[in-house]
Amino acid sequence: MKGTAYLVQSALVSLWWLGLVISKDFYQAFQFPGISGVAFNSFFAPDLFVITFLSIIRAYKPSRDLELIILGGFAYGSLYCVNASLFTSGGYLPTIIMLLGLFYNLFLVYQSNLFRESKSGNVWSNGFQTVIQILSIWSITLILFPWIIIDSFEIQMPSSQLIKVIAYVIIILSSLFGLSSAYFLVLYGNGTPLPAYQTNKLVVRGPYKYVRNPMAIAGIGQGLAISIYFSSIHLLIYTILGGLLWHIVVRPIEEKNMFKRFGKDYQLYRDNVKLWLPKIR
């Protein structure tokens, strides 16, 4: 599982640099005001050897030392970008990308410490935590990140009322679907959607009766709605990448944790309920 995650990382970093080479607009979106392109381009070799090359090696050879070296590379790059953004009041897109890479690697290195069952059996307490979690995640993934992408690529506001209506319908339905999924986790699972405060019971009711990952489906739907609203290929790529990373990297780790906690019950559930599309009975 980790091997796949590191292969994906090496591929994404390589594709990112390829995009910088072949597209002037893409390159410009990742620049810091007042910092020369030479300084920016100087990160090519460190990215190639510390991130891409070592990620490929780690994909085929488990090594805690390699994981920490790669993590250190992202930590250094993140600090540089944060500092550059503070000094230049710009370059937020590369800074966000580096921070995402940092958290991605923190997740890979310390994932065993992230999955914990909620110690609170109180529905109201778990419900309050869930509301805070959802508001935080939505603020970051549906407002902050899209705004940075829109600003960096100078995406224009939509003019078609029909497109707006379609986007509103999709995001409302997706949000309600996600909220209802969270509701069933809190009410019947004695926990929250967040891995650090996960449910104590296997939930197979509500949306979970029909698909195994309704909250992921809801998140992709919300991202799709935003990309439709702005008619933006950049936001669509953002949504697709998020969905693919969840499916390829996060989902297998979550499912392994579910097998460990619920055993045969989860195996039976997994055999009878599909991942993305409802099973037609």
UniProtKB/TrEMBL annotation:
This is Isoprenylcysteine carboxylmethyltransferase family protein. Keywords: Membrane, Methyltransferase, Transferase, Transmembrane, Transmembrane helix. GO terms for cellular component: endomembrane system. It comes from Antarcticibacterium arcticum. The chain crosses the membrane at residues 33-56, 68-86, 92-110, 131-150, 165-189, 235-253. It is found in: Endomembrane system. It is a multi-pass membrane protein. One of its GO terms (molecular function) is methyltransferase activity. It comes from the Bacteria. InterPro entries: Phopholipid_MeTrfase. GO terms for biological process: methylation.
